Amino acid sequence: MPGFDGYELDLITVGEQTLRVRYGGSGPPLLLLHGYPQTHLCWRAVAADLARDFTVIAPDLRGYGGSGKPPADAEHHAYSKRAMAADVLALMAHLGHDRFDVAGHDRGGRVGYRLALDSPQAVRRLTVLDIVPTGEVWARADDRFALTYWHWTLLAQPYPVPEIMIARDPDWFFFDIQFGGALRDRDEATFAEYSRAVSDPAVITAICEDYRAGATTDRAADDADRAAGRRITCPVQVLWSAKGPVGAWYDPLAVWREWADDVTGAGLDGGHFLPEDNPAQTLEALRRFHSGR
Predict the structure, then answer these.
(1) Where in the sequence is the domain holding 277, given as residue range(s)?
(2) Catalytic: 272?
């Protein structure tokens, strides 16, 4: 796969889940976590350069791409960010990394900060791309959110309401009516991978369960952490689209400073999909921060 030259592609079983993962490079370990509705291929434009400085591990999250798709449960715990964080923590231990850096975009950022809260001993540095915490999103939701991020509430509806709607034409749902069709503007192999993944009914349900978890168990976990005064103790880098909703609706650094002790970051040119839309600035920010410079 272009962008992952020299990487190994493997299926690794951790606990009850099997994760598709690419890994390669040398140096300190860096875990890359993708977002919705993508796979680990979202990192392809920065993966080769990062591998010069880091041992890079890029899995598909459970439910996405080629990773396992556990059955849903009534409380949506199977697709909670806590469950996904436990998967990648076990994956890193399997590969011999007990302490490592994490960079997560979109849903992957939510897994990353949950991992930093639940397993602070494991995460040395954390980058989150174009998000604020899930609990903050729901607490601050307004008409702008409802009209722009409408997929949050649609995908969280009970089974099988969104599944039926999406199954009629997954490409139209995921790639045409959302994000201005941005994900169609990719190289042929990458878009084919994204399209093939979301055409699988099991992936569609997994994605819906991811958002159902976001509206319930993930939000509850965030609220519990805030009530207990738990904070992210590692350094956090926050990157966001300078022209997107996250930068327009929130003060991202101020929001994250309510959650973490050491927060830096900036808005970058490009759209929501920063590793693909602006790989040069994303790479520079990741390399600088995770090298400790």
Answers:
(1) 8-134+220-290
(2) yes
